[in-house]
Amino acid sequence: MSKQRLIDAERLKRHYSWWTGPMELTREELDTIVDMQPDAAPAWIPVSEQLPNSDDLVLVSCQAKSGNRSVNRAYFDGQFWHGSGSMSGVTAWMPMPEPYKEVERDG
Questions:
Q1: For 60-74, what is each residue's pLDDT tens digit?
Q2: Cα(50)–Cα(6) distance, rounded to whole angstroms?
Q3: Domain count, the chain
């Protein structure tokens, strides 16, 4: 599964590839900025399209028969969902996000 980027680097490079005039940034500086962009947040993956690897802990979106929706942590053992909360009506899943890590700021 490929990760989505906040900036589509290839599209941006193609868009400006024709430009040969003066720029505020060099092509190398532009490439560096694009490469430094964080990955976009993971997107929900419908279970009808793909299931996670067995025993990987993921977030699941569930919809009960009553219509109530919830998000829970769970894993799929290849046959059944197991996790916190109700596992009825799992409709989609996404990888667990990375734990919070404080970023040092200059200043």
A1: 999 888 888 889 999
A2: 23
A3: 2
